[in-house]
Amino acid sequence: MPILEFSSVTMTYGRGRAKTEALRDVSFTVPEGAFSVLVGPSGAGKSTLLKLVLAMERPQEGTIQVADRDIHRLRKHSIPYLRRNVGAVFQDFKLLPDATALENVSLALQVLGLPRREVRARASKALEQVELEPGTKRSVSRMSGGEQQRVAIARALSGEPAILLADEPTGNLDPRLSREILEVLARINRNGTTVMLATHDPIVREAGVITHELGLEAGRLVSDSLADIDPLHAVDLEEDTNPVLNGGVPVGAVA
Amino acid sequence: MRDWPNTFRAAGYVVSRAFRGMAQAPMVQLLAVATTAVCMLLLGTVMLAWTNAQGVAGAWGIDVPVTVYIHDDAPTDEIEELAGLLEAIPEVTSVERVSPQDAMTRLAEGLGGEASMLEGIEPGVLPSSLEVHLEDGTSSGFISALGEKVSGFGVVEDVAVAGSWTDQAQEMLRTVGNMALGAASLVGFACMAIVWSTIRLAVYARRSEIQILRLVGGSTQFVRGPFIVEGIVQGALGAALALTLLYAGFDTVRPFLEDGLSLLFAAGTLRFFTPTELAIGVAFGALVGLLGSRAAAGRYVVT
């Protein structure tokens, strides 16, 4: 069953001569439990695609479904409720620098109106999932890039989203920290959460955790390939790369 | 169906975040409250002048167009019959019965600190009367004709009809009233502008937090709420501070003003705002703060 479905989605920015086509007639599905990756050069439309899933942008044409919900015709006041079901991690982390890890994660739970005790318990659990100490009094500005990205992942996870999106999550990190973050994401995926990354970091493809790869070029989907592995038993990062995804296969090759 | 416990808890987070946000920039908050207070002080002064001008006018009788003085020995049923006839006239809004005791009480109130002058004087020296209140805009011709007609009744000793001088006094009161209204509008806009600019600064300073809240699914109310609360608090505090300063100033100048008024108009009692009026003043400040902050946060803090 797909957790995410794009059907003939076209998205343009600007009008008239300034009109830029970010995505053109893009269709694909992401199966539930997949570790999906969006690859392509800068400007291929990866970030736009993630923005569409978060309803930060609206497509001019086509339909988008997230967990059986038509988001292309979502009313404005319903957008926050969609975002509570879609966790998002960004390259620049988007954290409150002066707040602690626990406070940053708690913010995502406070919007749900949960009792303080539950907010604290769930935020602590999410931090433990990414192997961070919930009780630390350090502000996130005093943490390393890898730790900050873990906090961002914990925040995205804390609301138990149907899908976790990550836009270039390793973009600001060195190779060692990038592998650490990928390991965290792989573990989250093995626990049943669908993960979708946008990246052009080769480490991600080499890590062997990907079960689904989408290739974008100049706003068009050029490849869509599924790995023939059970996502819940995806190979560990320490092991060798996933041989199924060497370059992907052309669009339409996957039924 | 709305989940009320969660909604209340979310409201609690909104209020606590508002106060945390205010604590992050205390000087900006103080400045906003002080500037709002200065504006509100201007409005409060005009409103207080208007309220007391009305009081003085009332004590002096210029707000009553026709006063019918009754003979001491007039039978009650005839007085009531006359009052009933007057009340039946469409232009008459009310007819107030004023006994000699009532008249004496009013006079004593009007004299304020000089009321001791009335010691030993019996209320009976003052006549009972009927005060006839008319609809606004009733012509002076109608008022004169009514006065003439009423003076023909046997129970009537004399009729006092408001003359051109009372028209002028009424006009003056209306002018002060319009000034108060104008000041209220101007001050309202000025306060809104102050709150608007402060909240815009706060929105700018906390833009990262706003963006994050939007991305993690904060509703528009949740994201905008703290700024609205901040605006309401600024407006209410500004109004409360202005009313406190106004009271202090009023209390200082009151004895001098009352002495002057009792000499000039035989109406020397001034009053400050009632608790209800004070509450309305603070609520007005809060409303202005709400509108200003909503305008500032509205465009920038949407999902």
Give a concise summary:
The complex is a heterodimer of chains A (255) and B (303). With 255 residues, chain A is α/β, with parallel strands linked by helices. Chain A has helices spanning 46-53, 79-83, 101-110, 116-129, 145-158, 175-190, 202-206, and strands at residues 2-13, 20-31, 35-39, 61-66, 69-70, 86-90, 163-167, 194-199, 212-217, 220-226.
Molecular structure report:
The complex is a heterodimer of chains A (255) and B (303). Helix content of chain A is 28%, strand content 26%. With 255 residues, chain A is α/β, with parallel strands linked by helices. Chain A folds into 2 domains: 1-85 and 162-255, Rossmann fold; 88-160, no CATH class. In chain A, strands 6-7-8-3-9-10 form a 6-stranded mixed β-sheet, sandwiched between helices. In chain A, helix 3 (101-110) crosses helix 4, helix 4 (116-129) packs across helix 5 and helix 5 runs parallel beside helix 6. Chain A is globular. Chain B is of the alpha+beta class. Chain B folds into 2 domains: 4-59 and 168-298, no CATH class; 65-161, Alpha-Beta Plaits (2-Layer Sandwich). Helix content of chain B is 70%, strand content 8%. Chain B is built from 9 helices and 4 strands. In chain B, helix 2 runs parallel beside helix 8, helix 6 (164-205) packs antiparallel against helix 8 and helix 6 (164-205) crosses helix 9 (275-298). Chain B is elongated. The mean pLDDT of chain B is 82. Chain A binds chain B through residues 54, 76-77, 79-85, 88, 94-96, 107-108, 110-116, 155, 159, and chain B through 3, 5-10, 13, 208-209, 211-220, 222, 302-303.
What is this structure's SSE topology?
The complex is a heterodimer of chains A (255) and B (303).
Chain A: E1 2-13, E2 20-31, E3 35-39, H1 46-53, E4 61-66, E5 69-70, H2 79-83, E6 86-90, H3 101-110, H4 116-129, H5 145-158, E7 163-167, H6 175-190, E8 194-199, H7 202-206, E9 212-217, E10 220-226
Parallel strand pairs in A: 3-8, 3-9, 6-7, 7-8
Antiparallel strand pairs in A: 1-2, 1-4, 4-5, 9-10
Helix pairs in contact in A: 3-4, 3-5, 4-5, 5-6
Chain B: H1 4-24, H2 26-60, E1 66-70, H3 76-87, E2 92-98, H4 100-111, E3 129-134, H5 140-151, E4 156-161, H6 164-205, H7 207-215, H8 220-265, H9 275-298
Antiparallel strand pairs in B: 1-3, 1-4, 2-3
Helix pairs in contact in B: 1-8, 2-6, 2-8, 6-8, 6-9, 8-9
